[in-house]
Amino acid sequence: MGLGNKGTLGPGSLQLMTAGRGILHQEMPKGDAQGRMHGFQLWGNLPRALKMTAPRYQDMPAEALPERHEDDGTSIRVVIGNWRGVKSPVDGIAADPQYLDVFVPGGKRKTFRVDTRRRAFAYVFEGAGNFRDAGRPEGVLLEKEVQGQEVNIRDLSGNRTLVRFGAGDEVTVTAGPEGVRFLLISGAPIEEPVAWAGPIVMNSEAELRQAFTELRNGTFIRPAH
User: Cα angle vertex 179, ends 128, 77, to 5°?
Assistant: First the structure.
């Protein structure tokens, strides 16, 4: 349970949950014969006015998500939002985010427009590429495999790299020899204080304490009217 929007993206489908005033759920993903899987889970905060909104769940099969193919071999799957007139069927996400699943062929350079009122980042999960523009791109410290070992590293180009962008109206990526596939995600900042503990996100420590008190006494999850 929690107080936010969660999106789980895998090769087969997209599941979106708005936790709101409380939702009980189980995650039981299945991988291949070796138990392997390829997917992403992203949590988004809800603004103060929607913290206790009614819970909601959306399940989209992969084939329901539109994809744009461009002449240079670039493909853009619109997971959430709108890309040059191609609109995802997903709706009702509070931060009005844009999730794009992008593949750029080897050696190609591609520029993507970014709304300057949004915050944007890219996560590389296949191949490699170099990012520039949109302010000064910054590699986020994370754990990744280097020469067979897991190390903490800041990177701006390789696989399993998270790149955060500053202010600016476009992002340019130049793909490596094998191409690059990445999520390009942006959303409008809520600009509210955050108090977070465990599965619950509120705006103040007092609200957080109240939420956990209600969770303990069984009144946190409220029936729909």
Answer: 100
* Whole-number Å distance between alpha carbons of 174 and 157: 9
197 within 8 A of 1, measured Cβ to Cβ: no
Q: Provide the CB-side half-sphere exposure for 46 (13 A, CA).
A: 25
Q: Give the chain's domains with CATH numbers.
A: 1-25+35-64+199-225 (2.60.120.10), 66-192 (2.60.120.10)
Give the DSSP H/E element, type plus range, for residue 110.
strand 109-113
Rounded to an integer, the average pLDDT of 209-220 is 87
| Contact of 134 with 168, CB cutoff 8 Å | yes
Dump pLDDT digits (tens) for 96-131: 889 999 999 999 999 999 888 888 999 999 999 988
Burial class, 17, CB count within 10 angstroms (exposed 0-12 / middle 13-18 / buried 19+): buried
Q: What amino acid occupies position 156?
A: L
Contact partners, residue 96, CB within 8 Å, separation at least 6: 81, 187, 188
> For tokens 């039981």, what's the residue?
28
Helix (H) or strand (E) holding 214: helix 205-217
pLDDT of residue 3: 41
pLDDT of residue 15: 82
User: Tell me, what's the pLDDT at 222?
Assistant: 67
Quote the pLDDT of residue 89.
92
CB 43 within 8 A of CB 108: no
Dist. CA 98–CA 66, nearest whole Å: 13
